[in-house]
Design a protein that fits this description.
There is one protein chain. The chain has 3 helices and 2 strands, in the order αββαα. The chain is α+β, with helices and mostly antiparallel strands and 65 residues long. The protein has one domain. Helix 2 crosses helix 3. It is elongated.
Length: 65
């Protein structure tokens, strides 16, 4: 699972506006396809990725500030 999360750094949804830019979410279509390609159970990825995403997005946005 850790390898999958590391691979998702390039699969982020980003929003950019006049006043701020920030990370919004993983591209879950890409994330689940990558999990499948890595041989991870789909149910496991579907269960854990949203939880990991919440923390990852928050931490990445903290770094932008």
């Amino acid at each position: 699972m850790w390898d999958l999360v590391q691979s998702l750094q390039g699969q982020m949804r980003i929003v950019s506006g006049q006043t701020a830019t920030g990370y919004v979410a993983f591209d879950m279509t890409a994330a689940l396809a990558l999990a499948r390609a890595m041989g991870l159970p789909a149910a496991l990825a579907a269960d854990l990725l949203p939880r990991i995403e919440t923390v990852a997005v928050a931490k990445m946005n903290e770094q932008l500030r």
